[in-house]
Design goal:
single chain; 171 residues; mainly beta; four-stranded antiparallel sheet; 48% strand; globular
């Protein structure tokens, strides 16, 4: 649901039917800096065979906010549990963490379309998360991998134990 909060009371702009997490972190929505595009993850969903159970989701959706009415322009199937995500300050890169699939996905965002550029596999038992400054991976003593969010280059080599490789984005 999209509201215009520039005035009081807030005005309903549109409702967009998009998969999102049934249970999950609040960081499953990211808005591009120019406010024209939204990326949404669905880290969890109801089990289609038993609606009383929650299972990993695997959907990543792009919403065009500039369209009238706003709507989903792209849906992708990704690894299990896409949870945290972030859009780079220039709006050209999206980083998505796969909580259950143990990976970090890096997409370019052009023309409101995502294109997969890299996938960083993480060691078992790690739980990735996106931060404001870095794509940070590692949990509960698992090796950590710190990448600069803009360049996706390693921040510090000693922390890269357990990471399968570094990523780079085309300029």
């Amino acid at each position: 649901t999209i509201y215009d909060i520039a005035q009081a009371p807030a005005r309903l702009v549109a409702r967009v039917d998009v998969p999102t997490s049934v249970v999950g972190p609040p960081q499953s929505i990211a808005i591009a800096p120019d406010m024209s595009t939204v990326v949404v993850t669905a880290a969890t969903r109801f089990d289609p065979t038993d609606r009383t159970k929650v299972v990993d989701g695997n959907t990543l959706s792009v919403i065009d906010l500039a369209a009238n009415p706003p709507g989903v322009v792209q849906s992708l199937t990704v690894g299990a549990g896409p949870a945290g995500l972030a859009i780079s300050p220039d709006g050209r890169m999206v980083v998505v963490t796969e909580r259950s699939a143990h990976g970090v996905l890096v997409y370019s965002l052009e023309g409101k379309r995502l294109t997969l550029k890299e996938r960083l596999a993480l060691p078992d038992r790690s739980m990735p998360a996106a931060s404001r400054q870095y794509a940070v991976t590692g949990f509960s003593g698992a090796p950590a991998c710190f990448l600069d969010r803009n360049s996706l280059q390693p921040i510090s080599k000693p922390q890269l134990a357990g990471c399968s490789g570094a990523m780079s984005m085309p300029r």
